[in-house]
């Protein structure tokens, strides 16, 4: 697919419906979030220090997104670090450079804020997805762990 022109910008209050549609592509089996809860959470995200949701917008449509979180730190002489989550591109718009451009924009923002590293965890086992992250500059040299909240009893 040919690369197309697009803009990268931070999400704003009016972008919530577009983000929810993108997240549906990321987690199609998740139950829908209540509209009031979604609005509250999104306002928390937009006002949370060090947190931003970046959008790739093509022809007025949000086609890809990442969430960037800058985390204060007491090691590395106080240099913060960054975490990238919720990387998703609309299926019909994949392989056009959107996600890679968003990631590199996130890296630039992290470096500008003095971060010493940017981390990303992926649950994907798809070799193409893992190769994409490597191509963007990530190195798979650490072991990630997670624990999920147990289901309600």
Write a brief structural summary.
Helices cover 31% and strands 23% of the residues. The chain is of the alpha+beta class and 153 residues long.
Number of helices: 4
| Rg of Cα set | 16 Å
Report the structural category. Answer: alpha+beta
Beta percentage is 15-25%
Q: Uncertain segments of ≥5 residues (pLDDT<50)?
A: none
**CATH fourth-tier homologous superfamily:** Gcn5-related N-acetyltransferase (GNAT)
How would you spell out the order of helices and strands?
Answer: EHHEEEHEH
The CATH topology corresponds to: Aminopeptidase
- The second-level CATH architecture is 3-Layer(aba) Sandwich
Largest sheet: 5 strands, mixed
Tell me the name of the CATH class.
Alpha Beta
Using the alpha-carbon principal axes, give the shape: globular
Average pLDDT, rounded to a whole number, is 94
Number of E-type strands: 5
Number of domains: 1
Gap from first CA to last CA: 48 Å
Q: Output the strand order for the largest sheet.
A: 1-2-3-4-5
Helicity range of the residues? 25-40%
Main features:
single chain, Aminopeptidase, alpha+beta, 5 strands, 153 residues, 4 helices
């Amino acid at each position: 697919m040919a690369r197309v022109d697009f803009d990268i910008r931070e999400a704003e209050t009016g972008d919530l419906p577009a983000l929810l549609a993108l997240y549906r592509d990321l987690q199609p089996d998740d139950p829908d979030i209540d509209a009031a809860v979604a609005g509250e959470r999104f306002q928390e995200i937009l006002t949370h220090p060090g947190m931003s949701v970046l959008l790739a917008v093509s022809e007025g449509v949000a086609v890809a997104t990442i969430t960037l979180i800058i985390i204060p730190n007491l090691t590395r002489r106080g240099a913060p670090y960054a975490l990238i989550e919720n990387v998703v591109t609309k299926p019909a718009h994949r392989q056009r450079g959107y996600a890679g451009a968003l990631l590199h924009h996130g890296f630039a923002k992290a470096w500008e804020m003095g971060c010493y590293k940017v981390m990303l965890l992926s649950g994907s086992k798809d070799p193409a997805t893992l190769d994409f992250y490597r191509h963007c500059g990530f190195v798979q040299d650490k072991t990630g762990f997670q624990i999920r909240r147990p289901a309600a009893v």
